[in-house]
Amino acid sequence: NPIGTIRVWNSNILLSDQSNTVVWSTSITEESERSPIVAELLNEGNLVLRQSNNKDGGNKVLWQSFDFPTNTLLPGMKLGWKLRTGRYSFLTSWKNLTDPSSGEFTYQIEAARRTRGFPALFLWSGRSKVKRVSPWDGVVSLGVPRNQPLTYITFTLTANKEEVSFSFQTSDSKYTSRLTLTSVQQLMWNETSLKWDLLWHSVAEECDIYGICGPYSYCDILMACKCMQGFEPKDQEAWALENKGDGCVRKTPLSCSDDKFSRLINIKLPDTTEAFLDWEVGLN
Question: Do the domain assignments include residue 77?
Fold first, then answer.
């Protein structure tokens, strides 16, 4: 229904259709003080519901849209956990280009909080991981194309007792950018053409698919799965038929006296969400 009404009533924002039936609300249940309630769209795109001139002399925020992202991440919005409240924010794709109801894909920051794992960003299809866009080490994201340096965009990973989150900011107010979930895309507004320019996107080529080659293997630039040095396909017949999800196994049993480390270059780190991490140790 293209006709609707948005209003503030009883300390909530209500969206109603043409028959005045409420189809969505902010659903705030806490008691509010007897002070004016204001809904305001801020310059950065955040819709804020707040008390005006409360007893503390401030503007208490009751609700803000930045806490509830849909398919778009704007500068200043955060994906991840608020650890004290348990709130978890992530992107959800639209059902299709004209239907904004929840679609198949989600884009989430993940870490096993109890083991203090290293956070990473994942693209999910239902309950299946499709692509790992990071890990993020606070300087570079291993999932963002390095041939497209985004010098005017700063990515931030925050991990402390309050939150585990991912966000970005533009370094100059003349730049307007957004990250959207169709595939994962970073867009920049072009003031000349008045259109959104595509900066980068995570195309799901075969090597981008999460765990495509299975354990102890890697996917090379020719989009072919290969076993690491000292390993062989677990199922030779399936491997020959390009069904390589079972991965590789050792050619010889593990021997702590003879084994050694091998250097692998230009390869993403393994999934780090279940790893133990010492946050006191920096990159230096």
Answer: yes
Question: Which amino acid belongs to residue 104?
Answer: E
Q: Which two tokens stand for residue 195?
A: 């259109």
pLDDT tens for each residue of 134-172: 555 555 554 555 555 567 788 888 878 888 888 888 887
What length is written for the chain? Answer: 284
Structure tokens at 122: 């994942």
44 and 3, same domain (yes or no): yes
* Residue 33 confidence class, pLDDT cut points 50, 70, 90: low
pLDDT tens column, 210-260: 888 899 998 887 778 899 988 999 999 888 888 888 899 999 888 788 777
Q: Is residue 257 part of a domain?
A: no
Measured in degrees and rounded to the nearest 5, phi and psi for residue 236 equal -60, -40
Together in a domain, 106 and 172: yes
Domain that includes residue 192, residue range: 69-205
| Phi and psi angles of residue 168, each rounded to the nearest 5 degrees, phi first | -145, 160
Residue 88 and residue 216 in one domain: no
**Are the beta carbons of 63 and 13 closer than 8 angstroms?**
yes
Co-location of 224 and 101 in the same domain: no
The count of structural domains within the chain is 3
Residue 10's region, left for phi above 0, alpha for psi from -120 to 50, else beta, is: left
Residues 56-102: pLDDT tens digits?
A: 556 788 999 999 999 999 999 999 988 888 889 999 998 887 888 89
Is pTM beyond 0.90? Reply is: no
